[in-house]
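Hi L.,

You mentioned the student needs an example of a multi-chain input paired with its predicted structure. This one should do, with 153 residues in total across all chains.
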Amino acid sequence: MSLPILPTISTSCIVISAIFVAIGWSLIRQRKIEQHMKVMLTAAIFALVFFIIYASRTIFIGNTSFGGPDSIKIFYTIFLIFHITLATVGAVLGIISLWTGYKQRYSFHRKMGPFTSIVWFLTAITGIVVYLLLYVFYHGGETTSMIKAILGT
Ligand code: HEM
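Structure written out for the whole complex:
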């Protein structure tokens, strides 16, 4: 089985990023502030690498449409939109978390940190599922522009 190189690297980046967030959370529970910050920054760098690969693929190559049976295409599409929504919300929350941490607005940061982390975990899990459905369980359909890939036309 041959897997496409760029989606494999970018999906791995989200998963690695989520693992770093989990480590960062456990560090702050042990009150290790400096290490918490470094690990969360590393998580952010992996998320950024994911985004750069994903965005350049979208712009220069296009996105891949679902290649599985028509009967489950609608479920794939709904799931994909759910994943994209989580990723977008996670990115915004992530930037706010980095900012409030950096600015030492800890009472706010402490409230939103766990929420941000959970959204990011769900982004990674749903991202793996999208990847499996698109490239492992079924062969990817044609690679086309973003809007067409989402709508599956
Ligand atoms: C510049 C980066 C960051 C710094 C300097 C920083 C700093 C801190 C500090 C000092 C605390 C303890 C606050 C307190 O107990 O009063 C904290 C808590 C926390 N932060 Fe961060 N943080 C950063 C980035 C992030 C990011 C990006 C996330 C999530 C993705 C995050 C998630 C959390 C979580 C889950 C807690 C624990 C809340 C709790 O259970 O009490 N942090 N952070």
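You could point out the following to them. Strands lie at 63-64, 143-144. The pocket of protoporphyrin IX containing FE is lined by residues 21, 25, 28, 33, 36-37, 40, 94, 97-98, 101-102, 106, 109-110, 113-114, 116-117, 120 (CB under 6 Å).

Best wishes,
N.
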